[in-house]
Design goal:
By secondary structure, the protein is an alpha+beta fold. It has helices at about 1-5, 10-30, 35-70, 70-110, 125-135, 135-155, 160-170, 180-185, 190-220, 425-430, 470-480, and strands at about 230-235, 240, 245-250, 260-265, 270, 275-280, 285-295, 300-315, 320, 325-330, 335-340, 345-350, 355-360, 360-365, 375-380, 385-395, 395, 400-410, 415, 420, 435, 450-455, 460-465, 485-495, 500-505, 505-510.
Length: about 500
């Protein structure tokens, strides 16, 4: 401290220190020109949206007025509300416009743009807070926005969806730790404050347009519009099977519930409820017509004609083998079976010479004989079981598989080969076996067991039961040298159909 008293600052040093503090403050408060330019662009875009909304709004009000001119009694209540909406919207819109201008005036003085578009002091951080907070105009703006929001809610008859929308658009709740006015205007660059207010103006015009459309829709919301009376035919199905019934509901659209129409097909009156039924005795397209007789409010009886058609087809079924064109003994044969116009629950499938089991959306067919089988499809129609079709399928034994040697490499990955070069260590491994399968290109799934095989080397031939090498075969392998050939032959495998097959030979070279 004593040093400071002995060496007081010169006036020049004090001035330099003061300038440093000012520069530091300016740097802390600096807003980049790119950000300010961004606010300007957003402000211009919002003004374009407002202009577009004004054009559409004018057309909406003109259309509303035209409706009033056509029917004043019906439209007056809603047009009056629309005019009140227009007045309230213009009032708060103009208030916000003046709010923007007064802020700009504090910064730009006599150069202030009356349209509040061209702002000279875009980066001014003081005038927004001065006008809104110090002079108290921010509280008044918040109050007016709240009143306008409540007016919209009341005008929409308390519609919960609209209420939620307006509360979101015109949200002026105080955030944590400060008031809404402070969040909007305190230390806010003038360009940003103006843009935020323009956004509110855009919301006002958009909301006004939405509300005018809503009010316009209310003019006929309770009306029941009828521009013609029409007879309709509603069939249960336009496709029926021979031997079943065609059923249709004949109705009159926009009919008076207090009147009882009479229904005629041809010149014959049908049931009072309009249900028309006819037995399908021939195949093809069946056309019919008639009319509905109904007295009008003036007492005059009028006929309303109708016509329709339906198709009668022969009983038929769609049967397709999902996997193959034939059925095989010993495995599950998957079928998709359907009947046009009949639900899966009303279909029954049986087979001569095979077992049938339902599995989800499919049927599993297992032949019990090596002759042809006959698959029969029936459907329950009007409470009766009707045969829809049948088809014969040839029964065959499943195809012969291929033979492979299966081993595991050093990484523990399973390998299957028909020929190759293997070490003695792999051959001597307990996991080395002979297998039979259809390989990677299998069309059907079937499990085979290798029941016996022979191994031939330069030493001789040794037989084995099962699919693994015997001790004697392993001893012969130990005596082999690099380049010697091992041939596995007479490989026999048994499939799920019980048939034992002799498969092709395999050759392995010792490395």
């Amino acid at each position: 401290m004593s040093g400071a008293k002995n060496c007081p600052e010169t006036p020049r040093q004090k001035m330099i220190g003061m300038m440093y503090l000012v520069l530091t403050a300016m740097l802390a408060l600096n807003v980049s020109s790119e950000v300010l330019q961004g606010f300007t662009l957003v402000n211009q875009t919002l003004h374009s949206s407002i202009q577009s909304a004004d054009v559409r709004m004018e057309a909406l009000y003109d259309d509303f007025q035209s409706l009033y001119d056509q029917n004043p009694t019906k439209v007056k209540e809603w047009l009056d509300k629309a005019h009140l909406l227009e007045q309230k919207s213009d009032s708060i819109y103009d208030y916000i416009q003046n709010f923007k201008y007064q802020m700009i005036r504090l910064a730009d003085k006599s150069d202030a743009d009356p349209e509040a578009m061209d702002i000279k002091a875009k980066d001014n951080l003081d005038v927004a807070g001065q006008y809104a907070l110090v002079q108290g105009n921010g509280k008044e703006l918040k109050k007016r926005l709240e009143e306008y929001r409540q007016f919209l809610v009341d005008l929409s008859a308390g519609d919960s969806l609209k209420r939620a929308m307006y509360e979101l658009i015109f949200d002026v709740k105080d955030p944590a730790g400060k008031s809404w006015e402070q969040a909007m205007f305190e230390m806010m660059p003038l360009s940003a404050a103006v843009t935020l207010l323009t956004k509110y103006q855009s919301d006002i015009r958009t909301t006004e347009m939405d509300m005018v459309q809503y009010l316009k829709a209310q003019t006929d919301a309770s009306d029941f519009r009828v521009n013609k009376i029409e007879a309709l035919v509603v069939p249960n199905s336009n496709y029926v099977m021979k031997g079943s019934k065609y059923s249709a509901k004949i109705v009159l659209a926009a009919v008076d519930s207090t009147a009882r129409p009479a229904y005629f097909v041809g010149n014959e009156q049908i049931a009072e409820d309009g249900v028309f039924e006819r037995m399908a005795t021939t195949t093809g397209v069946v056309e019919y017509s008639g009319y509905i007789r109904l007295p009008g409010n003036d007492g005059i009886v009028r006929n309303y004609p109708f016509s329709s058609e339906y198709t009668v087809g022969e009983p038929t079924a769609t049967i397709s083998n999902i996997d193959l064109n034939v059925v095989y003994l010993g495995i599950d044969n998957k079928f998709s079976i359907s009947v046009p116009g009949v639900t899966a629950e009303d279909i029954e499938v049986s087979a001569q010479g095979a077992k049938v089991q339902k599995s989800g959306a499919y049927y599993i067919i297992n032949p019990t004989q090596d002759k042809d089988i006959n698959i029969i499809v029936s459907a329950r129609l009007d409470g009766q079981l009707v045969q829809m079709g049948s088809m014969q399928y040839r029964v065959k034994y499943i195809p012969d598989p291929k033979s492979f040697v299966r081993y595991y490499d050093r990484g523990g990955v399973e390998r299957q080969v028909q020929e190759g070069r293997l070490s003695k260590n792999i051959l001597r491994n307990d996991r080395f076996t002979l297998i039979a399968s259809y390989g990677a290109d299998e069309l059907i799934k079937a499990n085979f067991d290798v029941v016996s095989f022979s191994m031939t080397t330069k030493i001789g031939t040794v037989d084995a039961q099962g699919n693994k090498l015997t001790k004697r075969q392993l001893d012969d392998i130990n005596r082999l040298e690099r380049g010697d050939i091992i041939t596995f032959r007479n490989i026999k495998a048994k499939g799920p159909d019980g048939k034992v097959r002799t498969l092709s030979l395999l050759q392995i070279e010792i490395i």
